Fold these 4 entries.
Entry 1:
Amino acid sequence: MTTRLVLVSLCLPWFCLAETTWSPSRWFWRRATRDVPSEGFHNPLDKGGSMLTQIPVTFPEGLGEPLNVIISGNSDEQVLKETETDGGLLNFFLSFGFSSECLGQHMGSNQAANLGDGHGYLNETAVIRWNYGDPALGACKESIEGGNHFRYWVQNGPEGNSGSIFMAVSYELPISLGHDIVANGYNFGRDWLVGNMTNTTVPTAELTNTTTYTTNTFWGGYTYLSEIKYVSGLLSNSSDGINHYITVGLNGTNAIDGLVAVITTKITARPASSSAIWTATPFSLWTCIFIIFVSSASAVIAYV
Ligand SMILES: *[C@@H]1O[C@H](CO)[C@@H](O)[C@H](O)[C@H]1NC(C)=O
Ligand SMILES: *[C@@H]1O[C@H](CO)[C@@H](O)[C@H](O)[C@H]1NC(C)=O
Ligand SMILES: *[C@@H]1O[C@H](CO)[C@@H](O)[C@H](O)[C@H]1NC(C)=O
Ligand SMILES: *[C@@H]1O[C@H](CO)[C@@H](O)[C@H](O)[C@H]1NC(C)=O
Ligand SMILES: *[C@@H]1O[C@H](CO)[C@@H](O)[C@H](O)[C@H]1NC(C)=O
Ligand SMILES: *[C@@H]1O[C@H](CO)[C@@H](O)[C@H](O)[C@H]1NC(C)=O
């Protein structure tokens, strides 16, 4: 009798663990798992997507803005979560001076992007603006005075769920000038954003597909270690199809240089109060650990 009880006590926890690891309910409750290729994202062009956004009205029609920065799916899971808490994406944006829109108001028109992930064209998830050093109200100033800003989309569709973030970054003129883009404003927007991350001046004219940076940024007690790699081959070095191409590429230069800054970010330090293990371990696993503990204890007691 006692032996049987001991056996049952010892076996139960392992059923529990197997259930936690394999059960379909786990897949139901969890978001579908990401599939991340070694580059950190799926090339939208591989599945009918585009590296240019769609804008409702352009002259001539059909022009778009380049998706010129990508936060790689190889970044920490926590960084890719669209939250301001727990070191999530919005906290990461704040770590290099970018805030959500002024008082939660959405200004300006929507743009749509097709990341080739099976979702087709979707409007941007949000518009994020350089905050002039004022996280609370700086984005308001940017909406009026112009400056650096970006729209972003998440590559998380059924045909390419890398979890990576695609950003269309540009430096715009003040609202009084109709929010056009400054000369070279796509390349500058990208490079001033990278400059904000690295606290250096990024030499736009000298960048190549071998340029890299490594930098730390900080916000809300989190430290982010980012590797930034400029890559070619996703966008072309030209003005073809680019919105505002006449004013952006002055003197016959191309409106964009064809480089995309790919950022891979890891969290290297957290506020003392948050424990990585605790937040990273699913509830059901804690339940299991508890059951293992209790049944081991009862096994020992039964045996004794
Ligand atoms: C996207 O934004 C446009 C306005 O810019 C709006 O007309 C359209 O309904 C939006 N699409 C979706 C799917 O929300
Ligand atoms: C950025 O660099 C300047 C000098 O180049 C320095 O004074 C400043 O403290 C730096 N800021 C940060 C956040 O490291
Ligand atoms: C941060 O970006 C703004 C414009 O977007 C720029 O004026 C400022 O010089 C940048 N800071 C650094 C350190 O690059
Ligand atoms: C960099 O660009 C050149 C063409 O300008 C190309 O031949 C080379 O393969 C590219 N390198 C990488 C690592 O993409
Ligand atoms: C275009 O050329 C003019 C005159 O040569 C020069 O003043 C201006 O700075 C140039 N603009 C750009 C963006 O290179
Ligand atoms: C883009 O093309 C121009 C010539 O059209 C060239 O001078 C420039 O170096 C190219 N830039 C990159 C990043 O390949």
Entry 2:
Amino acid sequence: MHNPPLPELTVADPELAGLVEAEAARQHASIRLIASENYVSTAVLEASGSVLTNKYSEGYVGRRYYEGQQVVDPIETLAVDRAKSLFGVEHANVQPYSGSPANLAVYLAFAQPGDTVMGLSLPMGGHLTHGWSVSATGRWFRSVRYGLRADTGRIDLDEVRDLARTERPKIIFCGGTAIPRTIDFPAFAEIAREVGAVLVADIAHIAGLIAGGAHPSPVGHAPVISTTTHKTLRGPRGAMLLTDAEHATAIDKAVFPGLQGGPHNHTTAAIAVALREASTPAFRDYAHAVVANARALAEALVERGFDLVTGGTDNHLILIDLTGKDIGGKPAAKALDAAGIELNYNAVPFDKRKPFDPSGIRLGTAAITTRGLTPAHMPVLAGWIDDVVKAAGAGDTATIGRVREQVTELVSGFPMPGFA
Ligand SMILES: *Cc1c(COP(=O)(O)O)cnc(C)c1O
């Protein structure tokens, strides 16, 4: 049952309540390996489901456009102060609705339409909002993209430097959605400094690892840091922009009134709760456990003959290249989902297949680590992944059914916040 329970919703809208219950049960029964997902605590769920959703608060603490901010102001102050102290930054804006609007605010703050901007190419692991062509950021700005080295699958910092020198971008984004290795913030900072660009570290995926000391911090290297709050940081869906003092005003003006109206106060409160959780010793342990699980899973997958982009992982994320396996990423992901192992198909660097039918699958260990799985479970999990990928190619539904039962049995021993 969903926890906290939904007695009113069940009466008022049984159809919708049934769907929420079904999703809670689905999350409980699955091995969730989608690298951008997690399970938030029941405390975070309570804050984000609170009456704070009723309140409008355009503006910032002490400078609002509506009355009645006696309670919301201290809530936003808590979130801001906790973000500043957790990440060690001079300024935090906790109002962006999500990661994509947070990145749009960065463009609004530091570039004019048509200006040159730079980011990691989407099929190489960047994000849409780092200047990809179909995104507003690729249509309204002149975006140039750096990529990966073909021999290592790692970011080609020589290319980044050469491109930056010739193209002179206003903004350089580092970070992405499918990068299994540590991001070299000092190297990016040196390049950005040389060409006079604002370096933006988009740490959406790794914010929780940074908060828990399991990945180096961009603070002191990137003057502007963009992050979601709902991936490894394990908070509600939302985002934050963390900056030094010099870039604070431009970011605040860009978020409001530049881009958004009223902040989502229920989300702000839930972010504050998540930041408090993330400042505990237990969360440091969690962040390191996420990485330990990813390493163990990567090793077990390699042992099973899988080809991993860069050969392994430094963080929570693994990218499997199925090129040698006679199966595309999409049918593999669908078969795994049928077996209760949830992940996404993903392009691999220099993919020869189309974006909607690429050669890879992406996995992350943030959610299963919250559930309590440990490195000892990873060889079992890798074995199931191997069995299902082989079964999918052979049309062997019996094996997929067998793994589905084993998955259900394993996860039933690990409680899920939000489900009782
Ligand atoms: C997830 C992500 C975003 C976007 O976040 P949304 O909340 O989905 O808009 C931006 N940048 C990176 C690197 C991400 O991984």
Entry 3:
Amino acid sequence: MCEECRARGGGRMECSWKTVLLLVCASLGVQYTAIRTLRDSLSGPCQGAYRCQSRHRGDSRWATSCDDSWAQTDSPRKHILLFATTRSGSSFTGQILNQHPGVFYVFEPLYHVQQAFTNSSSRLRRSLDRRALLGAYRDLLLNLYTCELHFMENYIRPEPQDHVTSSFFRRSSSRALCSPPVCVETGDKMSPDPPDETLCAKKCGPLNLTSASASCLSREHVAIKSVRIPEVGDLRTLTEDPRLDLKIIHLVRDPRAILASRMIAFSDQFRAWKIWNATGRQPRYVDLSQITSTCKDMAASAGTGLQKPSWLHRRYLLVRYEDLAFSPQVKASEIYRFVGLEMHNRVRTWIAKNTNSNASSPSEWNYRYSTTRDSRAAAENWRLRLGFDIVRTVQNLCNDTLALLGYRLVHSVAELRNLSHSLVEQGTFQSVT
Ligand SMILES: *[C@@H]1O[C@H](CO)[C@@H](O)[C@H](O)[C@H]1NC(C)=O
Ligand SMILES: *[C@@H]1O[C@H](CO)[C@@H](O)[C@H](O)[C@H]1NC(C)=O
Ligand SMILES: *[C@@H]1O[C@H](CO)[C@@H](O)[C@H](O)[C@H]1NC(C)=O
Ligand SMILES: *[C@@H]1O[C@H](CO)[C@@H](O)[C@H](O)[C@H]1NC(C)=O
Ligand SMILES: *[C@@H]1O[C@H](CO)[C@@H](O)[C@H](O)[C@H]1NC(C)=O
Ligand SMILES: CC(=O)N[C@H]1CO[C@H](CO)[C@@H](O)[C@@H]1O
């Protein structure tokens, strides 16, 4: 029975068919929820077919379509959002999703929205405009989750011609966008690892958004990484959208580590901080507001998530980057369990290759965005690099966030530099809602 069920589900639905189905599902919201609840409460391998037959036997036409849809919802379409902040380990974490062959992964599409808004007008900094920007972010996410990649054309500059663009941000971070059918020149196996920005563009030529949309539809799931949404509350309408089954992976990291990483990645912006780090004396013009708001947003989102509001039920997972870096396989399987997907072997292999090896020389890597070979050392490296005075300042600015997320304060340089002394609390940290 199960084989038959899979075989039937194997064929792809037509696009229009799917749309009809979505509308029907939306209008049957209550039933839909009931069905989902039922599915969740059972664990047999082939409930999909059973459920369809038993629920919709009456109307044979509907039953047929339902059979197909539910066979497919044996692995229903997931809409995964890796919700993070800059330099919190999101490139690495994103790769763990990107490696799954059934996942269509997009690395920070909201970049284009922000660029378009930032350039269009200076008055966009006001709060009304912040709402507009967040609305545009959500619109784009919704369109991408439904594989309408053409929607990106509203924001990509220069404007794509004939649905083709050379300016798709960080295209190379996505396997799907650098392999057939989107890229005809190179096989999936040839995808370099870590992704090579120039190689993908060179081999594949400009990106055809029509064929990218087709590739998206042909994969079972969509995962998007973003560092541009301030708070999880800004995503509420998407979690409630009946067209989506949104799964939010909230990635957090020790703000002291985030700051140290930003100082290196964005050294122009952080010149004053670097002077402070080098001299041990705080320059008058250091901008403390960015790290402060990073901490506030992180704590606000985690606070919301841990309160388990009903709109986040089964949709929110809090992940500390440190936990992932210290036990990548264990934590990655937790992430996969949460999103409801099998952890494919390719994911396991990728993690093994990218977290333990000593082989590669750092010069091969695009440091700013590359993932890392020795994830544990990388996650703790800030403790050897950041001046104690700065650490103390961040601890004062972010004390509530550090306490909430289970990061210990240090009270001396010796404590800071002693890596045998862990700053990451174990056990007490409640991570799943
Ligand atoms: C925004 O403006 C800057 C400076 O004028 C320019 O370099 C950049 O390409 C523009 N970005 C977009 C997306 O239009
Ligand atoms: C983009 O891809 C679509 C579908 O594969 C194709 O029909 C179209 O001709 C392509 N556009 C260009 C400009 O190559
Ligand atoms: C801070 O200064 C130390 C030397 O005192 C240096 O090794 C380290 O790289 C600096 N850290 C950053 C983030 O610039
Ligand atoms: C953080 O610092 C503020 C102000 O100094 C203090 O009121 C608050 O209790 C501290 N929070 C924690 C968790 O220590
Ligand atoms: C480093 O920390 C460990 C664990 O807390 C402690 O046992 C050890 O004495 C510390 N080493 C130094 C040099 O302080
Ligand atoms: C643990 C590990 O991967 N060790 C490797 C480190 O690099 C040398 C030289 O490339 C290899 O011989 C080791 O096996």
Entry 4:
Amino acid sequence: MTPRTSGPRPPVRPEFRPPSFTGRLHDARTATAVGRWLGAAFAVCFLTGLVSHYLQHPPDWLAGRLPARPVWGYRLTQGVHVSTGIAAIVLLLVKLWTVYPRLFVWPPVRSVRHALERLSVAVLVASAVFEVLTGLLNIAQWYPWPFAFVPAHFAVAWVAAGAILLHIAVKAPEIAAHWGRRSPGTRSLPAADAVDRRSLLLGTAAAAGAVTLTTVGQSLTPLKTLDLLAPRHPDHGPQGLPVNRTAAAAGVSAAGLGAWRLEVAGPRPYTLTLDELRAMPQTAAALPIACVEGWSVQAHWAGLRVRDLVERAGGRPGTAALRVTSLEVSGSYRVMEMGPQYADDPLTLLALTLNGSALSLDHGFPARIIAPNRPGVLQTKWVHRLEVL
Ligand SMILES: Nc1nc2c(c(=O)[nH]1)N[C@H]1C(S)=C(S)[C@@H](COP(=O)(O)O)O[C@H]1N2
Ligand SMILES: [Mo]
């Protein structure tokens, strides 16, 4: 037997090699240029989101100070919130594409400081993706998750805001070096990349502009013919107005409404039938419904001034708050409260008509609330009880 001197060599464990990225534009100048737009979009989105949150859930110190004017205030802030959120999706994708090679840095952790930095970026990316994704699915009314949208979206917004501020602080020197095309750090980059970078930035701006133009018409009604990508068209629906929650979904049927009475509780409680309400002096108001999901539209309402109903029940004008209860069997918006500034406002109505005809069942027949400068979720439909507080 001859000893084996040759043959297959024992396998050598190949040394791990991180992928190398030859593509251009994964650089600090591109990251800074896109990051500025993304940061601006997130900042506006965060602030308008706070407005929306505090209008819906005012803390005690704020409750009495929320203004009922301008009547279109919430329409504007929430339209901007949803539009900047949608544009941020495009910007976030481009930003992530620009920086993703850094996911593969080798070694993955160089020091405690480096580990903390990577951890903070992980939190930043996760919270930013969570915010735009849950926001997008919420406007499509699709909830494929076990948690409640509002508190989760609100809490993670703070996480994202904190992570962004931290990220800006950590990256400040790099951002400063690459802020403008002629900044010191940018001069060291190959000149050829500048042309590609301009194309990328123009493409990004065009894409963000395109999604904005094709959705913003849901609240900016002069552009409504362009709103191909918006989940709702501002005038598609009964009586020329979209419906978010139908009577069927709320468990309200016309059959049970024959015996409907408006109950008003307070120092001098009373009840009124629909005919009695119709026989009283009616007030008209042009006010928008502005849904938290971004669509909004102005409509013409008529009915009773809430202020008059409150006064008749013995509520003191200007100081009485109001609790409104819907016929809806269950649902987050069955009971709504309004502070004195809304209850006393001459434009706040218990509306009986919409755009000239009696409310349809889906719009809240027999009676609904319409108040100035409030989120759509608080414009309670199918009202049957008012309680002066
Ligand atoms: N009782 C009750 N009222 C409600 C709701 C609801 O779910 N229940 N949805 C609200 C929401 S989210 C909006 S945007 C407005 C929309 O009113 P519309 O369907 O008449 O357009 O009604 C609000 N009123
Ligand atoms: Mo809504």
